[in-house]
Amino acid sequence: MLKVLRNIAIVVAVAVVATGCFKKVTTDTVLCIKVLSEEESGGERVPAEGCYGYIYYANKDWAVASYDDAVAKTITNLKTGEKRSEPDGESEPYMIDGASNNYVSIFQGEPSALVVVIYPEAKMYAYMHRQTEAENLHYTYLTLIFHKWKTGEYSEGSKDGYKWMVVAPETVDEPEVPSTPPTNDENE
Predict the structure, then answer these.
(1) What is the pTM of this model?
(2) Residue 23, Cα to own-chain centre: how many angstroms?
(3) What is the spatial distance between Cα 78 and Cα 125, in angstroms, rounded to a whole number?
(4) What is d(CA 94, CA 79) in angstroms, rounded to the nearest whole number?
(5) Structure confidence at residue 94 (pLDDT)
(6) How far is the C-alpha of 160 from the C-alpha of 21, rounded, in Å?
(7) In angstroms, how far is CA 148 from the centroid of its own chain?
């Protein structure tokens, strides 16, 4: 009898310890996005200053239609034309060793999301449809590079297999060059 009680006590003790090991399963994560910029093809990649972002819990039917819409935090449903202008979350600087190091952090609380990052200095923006699959991953680190020398729309790879769609101005501002050189002749 004593042996049976001892075995029951061991089973109960193991069950109590084991239940303490199980945590709530969640797909919530903080996206920590390192934002860089590249002035010319093959050039040095430097931190992109002044970037910010936001998130919408939306599927792949939603996108950002223009730079003005990106700044206004407006997304458009590609099938219906419906617009939304109140994001589900906005970015905050992500501090590492007391400095933001040009990281933008955005909390993703739903599995399916549209993430948008804006680079005002270059009048560029990027967006990504992101599906969370990992469980209990507190932070997800991503990199986004704005290639300032590109024009139009292009995709930028991410280490975790996701692709950013980056939209740059259609033309890169070039300094105006006069068709004829100026002269110092006052008679002209």
Answers:
(1) 0.75
(2) 28
(3) 18
(4) 35
(5) 77
(6) 28
(7) 17
Mean of per-residue pLDDT scores for the chain: 80
Tokens of 145: 């590079």
DSSP 3-15: HHHHHHHHHHHHH
What does the pLDDT read at residue 180? 41
Can you list the positions of beta strands (E) in the chain? 29-38, 45-47, 52-56, 62-63, 75-77, 83-84, 89-90, 92-93, 103-108, 112-119, 124-131, 139-147, 152-157, 163-168
What SS3 state is found at 19?
helix
DSSP state letter for 70: H
| Run of H or E including 20 | helix 2-21
Q: Is 109 helix (H, G, I), strand (E, B) or coil?
A: coil
Q: How many CB atoms lie within 10 A of CB 1?
A: 5
Do 35 and 48 contact (CB within 8 A), yes or no?
Answer: yes
8 Å CB contact between 166 and 118: no
For β-strands 92-93 and 62-63, DSSP reports them as unpaired
CA angle 65, 75, 144 (to 5 degrees): 75
For residue 67, the 8-state DSSP code is H
Using only C-alpha atoms, the chain has a radius of gyration, in whole angstroms, of 25
Residues in the chain, pLDDT under 50: 4-5, 11-12, 16-18, 22, 172-188
Residue 126 token pair: 């990027």
Residues 6+ apart with CB under 8 A from 151: 168, 169, 170, 171, 172
DSSP state of 74: -
